[in-house]
Amino acid sequence: MQRNITLAELREMFLAADESQASRVVAVLVSVVLAAVVLQLVRRRALREEHTPIWLALSGGLLLVSLRFDLLKSLTRAIGAWAPSSTLFFLGELFLLAICLNFAVRLSRASVQLKNLGQEVAILRARLDALKNDAPR
Fold it and tell me: φ and ψ at 72, to 5 degrees?
């Protein structure tokens, strides 16, 4: 007779599974390469310094999770996810949401500044035209 496995037992089987050494090595390499790329972009001034802490924190977090997989499993249990990969995807989505929100706020600010600058230029142009028209010929 075959025994039925409950969902809780199945979840524990997912969480108890060992991670592969190859995936750990790849994750460490990706986090180190990400940090190196971020620093290179800042050095070439392709990435502004204000964004550097965000990306270095991300690469540090990836490195921490790569080296201490038990932390990821604990977080997976705490949030009620089924597998550590689900937790990583969830955290990645939260990170992307935060980045998108950050850029939306910056874009809104830039839009307001651009509108104000356009209005100031129009006022200055009107004053300049008025001065040209009033000047003696």
Answer: -65, -40
* Residue 2 in domain: no
Q: What is the structure's pLDDT at 94? A: 94
Residue 44 dihedral angles phi and psi, to the nearest 5°: -85, 5
55, 34 contact by CB (below 8 A): yes
pLDDT of residue 18: 78
For the chain, the domain total comes to: 1
Report pLDDT for 70: 87
Q: How far is CA 96 from the centre of its chain?
A: 5
Mean pLDDT throughout 83-100?
Answer: 91
What range does the domain containing 22 cover?
7-134
In a domain? residue 95: yes
